[in-house]
Write a structure and sequence with these properties.
mainly alpha, Cytochrome C Oxidase, Chain A
Length: 415
């Protein structure tokens, strides 16, 4: 069941007083809270995996003939980078939902090392396709174990209202397993192999952003607007969670399910168009235009805007009016990349006791990330002789995450 109104602790992702009082942690900073290793790993992997992909596109690198490089690239964005952010977010938020101590120290180290093993194996498989089954087993074990951990923590804390998040984590693990099964030739769903599982993983991430974004964006926006209005009267706040939000979440789940089953049908296009309108109406109620003075808030709205943009472009693609590949990147780069970056930066600042405001470097990397999304989408409609928009977009992505690691790794690696 969807909550009628989001809980404040979910919004802020900040430790409760009870947890702060019981922390008493004296181990390595990296293992103090889930956001530290997994947000750091996510940034590094965003650089390594995309850098490798560009290297293969340009011919600088050569892969084992048994590896589908496109499938590898898509898989690593969703289940390498994306899953790492989901793990960091959930491990950081769950103690606030449940009142239990966070997963840290040795338990967190086991999860982090397991994630690293899966990623190193995936990278090694590029040179030796025979390693792929081991990489698959390692990744499925990590995501499966993580899903069990999330369910256990929510059950132990009796926090059933956040059970849908545990369900999404489980679906992400199942999508990863399907992707690997397709890439290994164990299944062939509609002739698309591993890409079906990867699309399912993307659908889970879009649904997660729809669910969680609808909680944190109005909350963070409202908090900031209240601060700005302290000396100037009462602020006009974002609309509270209501019927439109519930309808949008349920309709998004339905539309993404139809898209997975019938990705190129006109019927799918109609649903996609309707969802674009619903998400735009939802976003318009959150007062994003009033936040330009603080990019750390504005970037949440901009990232969410790529969701209706993706639905609109996928609708056009269903009728043969736009490139489906370019349309997908509105979701993968714009929505997933933009929202995960926003959450990682904000959580890293908030949980390290720093001021929640964007530096010039942060603004630069935000612009680079969304520039990458725009250029990759434009590749579906324009062609400029001598200019490869895909490569330029990839370079923008790389630059954005290099800057992210440069600015936020010291925050994540030190107390």
């Amino acid at each position: 069941m969807l909550p009628r109104e989001p809980s404040p602790t979910f919004h802020a992702m900040s430790p409760s007083p009870q947890i702060e009082a019981r922390r008493g942690y004296s181990g390595p900073a990296l293992l103090e809270r889930g956001f530290r290793p997994f947000f750091f790993f996510a940034g590094v992997w965003a650089v390594v995996s995309l850098g490798g992909w560009l290297g293969f596109l340009s011919g600088v690198f050569q892969a084992d003939s048994g590896i589908d490089i496109l499938a590898w690239h898509s898989h690593e964005l969703i289940f390498g980078y994306g899953a790492s952010v989901v793990m960091g977010f959930a491990l950081t938020a769950i103690p606030n939902w449940t009142g239990r101590l966070p997963v840290r120290g040795n338990r967190l180290a086991v999860l982090a090392v397991a994630w690293l093993v899966a990623r190193v194996a995936s990278l090694a498989a590029l040179g030796n396709a025979g390693i792929t089954p081991y990489a698959a087993a390692a990744e499925v074990a990590v995501l499966g174990g993580f899903a069990i951990l999330v369910f256990r923590e929510i059950a132990a804390g009796g926090n059933w209202r956040n059970l849908p998040v545990a369900g999404m984590v489980t679906l992400l693990g199942l999508a990863a397993a399907t992707s690997h099964a397709g890439r290994l030739g164990l299944v062939d769903l509609a002739g698309h192999g591993g890409m079906t599982g990867t699309r399912a993983g993307l659908a889970v991430l879009i649904l997660l952003i729809t669910l969680i974004g609808g909680r944190i964006i109005p909350s963070f926006t409202g908090n900031w607007l209240k601060q700005q209005a302290k000396s100037g009267g009462e602020a006009r706040l974002p609309a509270p969670f209501g019927r439109l939000d519930q309808v949008t979440i349920l309709a998004t789940a339905l539309a993404l399910g139809i898209w997975l089953a019938l990705p190129a049908s006109p019927e799918t296009g109609v649903f996609m168009g309707l969802l674009a309108a619903l998400h735009l109406a939802r976003l318009a109620r959150w007062r994003g235009l009033a936040t330009f003075a603080e990019p750390l808030v504005t970037m949440l709205h901009v990232a969410y805007a790529w969701i209706p943009a993706g639905f609109a472009l996928m609708a056009l693609a269903s009728f043969g009016l736009f490139s489906a590949t370019a349309a997908l990147h509105a979701w993968t780069i714009g929505a997933v990349g933009g929202m995960t970056l926003a959450v990682m930066m904000r959580a890293s600042l908030g949980h390290s006791g720093r001021k929640l405001t964007a530096t010039r470097l942060t603004v630069t990397l935000i612009l680079l990330l969304h520039g990458a999304a725009l250029l990759r989408v434009l590749d579906g409609v324009i062609t400029v002789e001598g200019i490869n928009l895909v490569t330029i977009a990839g370079s923008f992505w790389l630059a954005a995450f290099v800057l992210y690691v440069f600015e936020y790794a010291p925050i994540q690696l030190r107390k």
